[in-house]
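User: I'm writing a tutorial on reading structure tokens. Could you give me a worked example: one chain, its sequence, then its tokens, then a sentence or two explaining what the tokens reveal?
Assistant: Sure. Here is the example chain.
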Amino acid sequence: MLAPSSLHWEIGNAFSAMFKRNRITLHQATAALAAYNRIPIRFYDVSLSTALDLAHRLKVYAYDAYIIACALKHNSPIVSLDNRLLDAAHMAGVETVEVTL
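And here are its predicted structure tokens:
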């Protein structure tokens, strides 16, 4: 798997959002983080200019644009639970894989 370098901060932001909504405990987040750290991910920097162009064109947040830019740069599909990200990726011409629980 590969991802933009920003993925670490997006993971942290997701956990903090769950804390605010009382949807996860620190113990659960720590266990999830340990599982995340076992995933073999190659991290890449993406062009901020490219990401901003995508964010503007696709009307998405920068975090989503970083993921799309990374996929475009490496001609790779995006795997996500986020349907809005998958829709934007489709509009950008990126292959996607939807994960269902």
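What the tokens reveal: The mean pLDDT is 95. Strands lie at 2-4, 42-44, 78-80, 96-98.
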